[in-house]
Amino acid sequence: MKRFLKTFALLIVSLFLVVSGVDAALDHLSHSATQSSFTVYNEQGGVVLAYNGDLNACKAYVKPGPVAVPFLHRT
After folding, report:
1. 71 and 43 Cβ atoms separated by less than 8 Å
2. Residue 71 CA to chain centroid, in angstroms?
3. Residue 14's pLDDT is what?
4. Is the pTM of this model over 0.90?
5. What is the C-alpha separation between 9 and 2, in angstroms, rounded?
6. DSSP 3-state of 36
7. What is the pLDDT of residue 11?
């Protein structure tokens, strides 16, 4: 009976730690910044398009077919 109580207490404590860790991780993700940058380069290494801001608000309008963007960098 004593071993059962120790195992049960250890199980409860470990479940509490896992749940609090997941809760802290989800809280951190919900408050993280959505700022990001997007840059398109040409063949010579010059910047063709640069965007700094909230990429979640951007909508992608993609035309079917191949896209001729040789260098793409997202941070």
Report:
1. yes
2. 23
3. 96
4. no
5. 11
6. strand
7. 96
Dihedral, 69, 62, 52, 33 alpha carbons, nearest 10: -130
Are the C-beta atoms of 34 and 56 separated by less than 8 Å? yes
Contact (Cβ atoms closer than 8 angstroms) between residue 54 and residue 62: no
Q: How far apart are CA 25 and CA 44, in angstroms?
A: 42
Q: Is residue 25 very low, low, confident or very high in pLDDT (cuts 50, 70, 90)? A: confident
Residue recorded with tokens 């199980």: 11
Domain boundaries, the chain: 1-32, 34-75
How many angstroms separate the CA atoms of 74 and 53, rounded? 12
H-assigned helices in the chain: 2-30
CA 42 to chain centre: 27
